[in-house]
Input
Amino acid sequence: EVLLVESGGGLVQPGGSLRLSCAASGFDFSRYTMSWVRQAPGKGLEWVSDINLSGRITQYADSVKGRFTISRDNAVNTLYLQMNSLKPEDTAVYYCAKGPSRGQGTQVTVSS
Output
């Protein structure tokens, strides 16, 4: 059974930073592309970023490019999202995803 557990969300002021983590289990983490997606209040799911198996290839939505960095540690089955220069429009529930499978999410609120 795929299990994805996100953590690291919280309340941060505009311009601040947060680092999200996703602990994965129930599958061979090192053999899958992983993603972060988010859902803002009242909106649909938005893809944020992908990372390939080795971590060498990453992709980002234009809305976060240059501010967010996705990474992974296959030795400990963990996915990360470093978020810098946060904006109020980044407020959302952030989910770690393996294909259609997602965790329970972690809330990120950017507000002064």
User: Anything to note?
Assistant: The chain has no helices and eleven strands. The mean pLDDT is 97.
